[in-house]
Amino acid sequence: MTNIEADVALEAARRFLDGHFATLESLELIDDLLSGEENTHAQLQSDLENASRATEALRDEAVDISQSLRDKALALIDLHSEVVGAAADDNVSAWQFRDGTETMDLVATLATELQSYDKLSRAKTYIDALLEVEQAKQSARQSLSTNPQGMLSAYSKLIAILAAHSNSGSLAPLTSGSATSDCSADSPPQPSNLLEYIKQSVQEIWSEANEAAASAQSESLTKLGWPAKMDLSSAAAVGAFDASFSTLAGLDHITRAASDALARCGLTLRADDAPPLPLEHMARAVDIRMRYHFESARTTSRADKPEWWLSQVLGMLRNIVPFLESHVQRLFNGTTLPQLDARNEFICLVLPVVQRKLTHDRSEYIRDGLVIAHVVHELADFEHTLRDVYFYDGPSVLGQFLADSALFSAWVEAERANAVESYMQTIAESNPFELVYEDDMLGADDAKPSRLAEKVVLVIEDVAERYAVVPSCMQRLQLLSTAQFPILIALVEDIEGEIDEFSRISLAFIRDAGITNAIATKPTTATQSPLVSQLARLTSWYQTIWYVEEAADDWNNSATYVDMWAAVCQRAAALGRNTDPRDWRVNCDEWSDADRALLDETTHQSLANDDWLDGGIWERSIGTLRELKQRVLDIISRAINKDVVGQLRAYRKKNNWAAEGIGANADTDISIELSGLLPELSSVLAALETMVPSLAFSLLLRQLAAELDTFLVERVALAHSFSQCGGRQFAKDIGALSQLLGSSTARGATKKLKHRVLLKSRECSLILACSLDSTTAPAANDMPLSLDEWGPTVISSDASDRETKLVLKKLGISNLSAKEARSLVGLRVDFAELTGCNT
Predict the structure, then answer these.
(1) Angle at 339 between CA 333 and CA 342, to 5 degrees
(2) Are 828 and 722 contacting, i.e. CB atoms less than 8 angstroms apart?
(3) Same domain, 363 and 429
């Protein structure tokens, strides 16, 4: 041996010792190992000598047979020459020769010898292959626990033998037909089954090597604390783990490298997408522990408490991820396997444990669909932790769980049933529209929820909160359509039913007839007004609708529903120009996979323009609620107006406006017919003011003022004759009503109503209370001119409407028509007498 060869051998020995005997304790085992290796070497040498002797004997026998066949062939050639030569002679017939029988016997004998030679040649090939296989198997088995590298080398050689003989044709059957005899890896095979025997041998050695290395790795991991908190203080355990990890990695690499050759033989030891073998076995201990927690009678396995068993998985990851990120990743980087993130790959190996637990509890989920919502939330949190803390980038656990159509359908149905049940329980209560909070607990212009409104909003928001984490937009839309919209529709229908029932009862029956017709002698309190309770009922509907409408408006602008609306708009754009995205609910239960892909892949950036910003998922619902709210407000207005006008019946029938001396009593400020109405109306308005927002209250006041204005002008001022005293009494009444409608108790914009209500009635009172002539004492806020100064011009038949309007405008009258002004002047009995006298 040269110096260079000696150096190379020394270096190889040094690398071997560094790789397998890194500690002092392991070095002490070298003598034992060397002794074992020497015994192994001696045994192998003996086996090799025996095999060589058997092979030499077979070779000698084959040579003898070959020589015999050669001699037979030469004799046959000579005979053939004689036969051909004889047949060529014209005097001798080709079919008539004396030695024909001997020739045929020779041919038969030669054929038999040739067949024997072929069988012996192939038998030698079988024996050679069998010897190689047996030697490789024996070498691999002897090296399983003591020499991992030797075992891998023997395993690699065994695969090479299989690959070399699988397609060479050298192992063809010795006899025609298919072999029917059985063979096993433990007994010599029949020749026709040798290829199958080699395959079984490869598979057997693979299994034995895999189990041995896995067992060694498991034992070392157990010493390190796996899969609980890792303790790397034991150098021996760490070294044993490293060695077993290296063995498994080498075994995996050899198998993957030979996957094509193995596939040609119909043998699949490792799938193409199989995880690295060391990590696969490391996950086995985790799987065992999780089965203990997930499939036993422990509290951690409760189906309705997924957070308990998911926390076990996260706790396990907290313990072992540092070990994976540092030590295991370093070992993996030193292997010949394709590089990957050991932490992420291991999490992928653990997640099937979670999937199996979900499958195990599937029947319980279907029985109680609302548990699915809880599981979905916990899975979302679990996956969020995996991705944000451990940088997991594999398949979505939640997405795979919700891909089960039966599970999702059970959840949707449970959400629908629970929402309907909650709503029906509330609507069935004695007074579902009773307001929840006192007036002083909320702002003046804040919606005050009723019990039903609060329940509707809570139910809808609870459903949304449960499905907000669902990754599929189509599934979120299906939950929205099935479990949320029906609740809002039920609310609208129930309020419409209440309105219809209220409308069937004539508003004339709201007020007791005795109260209506009686002339009250003292102010009526709010609690004595029958109208207040009816207004409270009506405004509770209004507040209910308003509260839900404001909530729906907030929902429409929230990120969850904005994203869903964007997806719906994108789908509508894809379907065609005439498709209205607000019609998305039509046939949503029949959406296809194409619809799902389109909805789930939509982003705001994928929309062609900003038209989608003009609407929203809840747009039509909000519109319906606004229309219903306005309908209730109109009913409130009609109820107040009809009640007030009904109480003015006596005032309308008053017929002493033309009497002299009316209103002269200083103690009588307003007409006695109004003495009961004004305080009650004041209390009703004060109560109403707390029941509706300021804008609605202002609108109601304007409508009431317009109704009163028309009533006072048409049914009182233009329907009776007046003296100046009667006109002044009418002016006092109009002033009192104006003061009431525009009093400072009204909020916000309604404070400005004082000088804008009853405009025509006040102008009527100016004409009716105007001084007859300059000798008559002027009334408060009287006109600058007396009636005799401008009245004749107004009633003159020669005056046009334009001239009359100019005169009236100078007098501060701009709302009355010329015809109405003429009628009012004509209704002044004292002026009629005056003009009659003049005439």
Answers:
(1) 75
(2) yes
(3) no
The range of the structural domain enclosing residue 109 comes to: 19-86+99-170+193-208
The pLDDT > 70 percentage for the chain reads 78
12: its two tokens: 């190889």
| Residues 385, 430 within the same domain | no
What pLDDT, in 10s, does the model give residues 396-416? Answer: 999 999 999 999 999 999 999
DSSP 29-71: THHHHHHHHHHHHHHHHHHHHHHHHHHHHHHHHHHHHHHHHHH
pLDDT at residue 510, rounded to an integer? 54
pTM: 0.73
What's the mean pLDDT when you consider all of the chain? 81
Q: What radius of gyration do the chain's Cα atoms show?
A: 53
Tens of pLDDT along 746-761?
Answer: 444 445 555 678 999 9
Question: Helix, strand, coil % (nearest 5) of the chain?
Answer: 75, 0, 25
Cα–chain center distance at 291: 29
In contact, 635 and 538? CB cutoff 8 Å: yes
Please work out, in degrees rounded to the nearest 5, the angle formed at the alpha carbon of residue 695 by the alpha carbons of 691 and 698.
Answer: 85
Could you tell me if 723 and 829 are in contact, meaning their C-beta atoms sit under 8 angstroms apart? Answer: yes
Q: What is the DSSP letter of 712?
A: I
Q: What is the pLDDT of residue 173?
A: 44
End-to-end C-alpha distance for the chain, whole angstroms = 161
pLDDT, tens digit, 9 for 90 and up, residues 114-141: 676 666 667 677 777 778 888 888 888 8
Computed from CA positions of residues 554, 558, 564, 565, in that sequence, does the dihedral angle turn out positive or negative? positive
The model's pLDDT over 62-71, given as tens digits with 9 standing for 90+, comes to: 777 767 766 7
Q: Residue 799: pLDDT above 70?
A: yes
Q: What confidence category does residue 603 fall into, taking pLDDT thresholds of 50, 70 and 90? A: low
Q: Distances from the Cα of 598 to the Cαs of 406, 467, 566, 574, in angstroms?
A: 22, 19, 11, 9
**Looking at the domain assignment, is residue 626 inside a domain?**
no
Q: Is residue 393 part of a domain?
A: yes
Residue that finishes a domain, picked among 208, 237, 265: 208
Query: Does the pLDDT of residue 54 top 80, yes or no?
Result: no
Residues with Cβ < 8 Å from 400, sequence gap 6 or more?
Answer: 355
Q: Which of 383, 403, 423 represents a domain boundary (last residue)?
A: 403
Instruction: List the structure tokens of 66.
Output: 């070959």
Assign residue 734 a region (left: φ > 0; alpha: ψ between -120 and 50; beta: otherwise).
alpha
- CA–CA separation, 706 and 638 (whole Å): 12
Specify whether 480 is located in the same domain as 570: yes
Average pLDDT score over residue span 219-248: 91
For residue 233, give both structure tokens.
């203080």
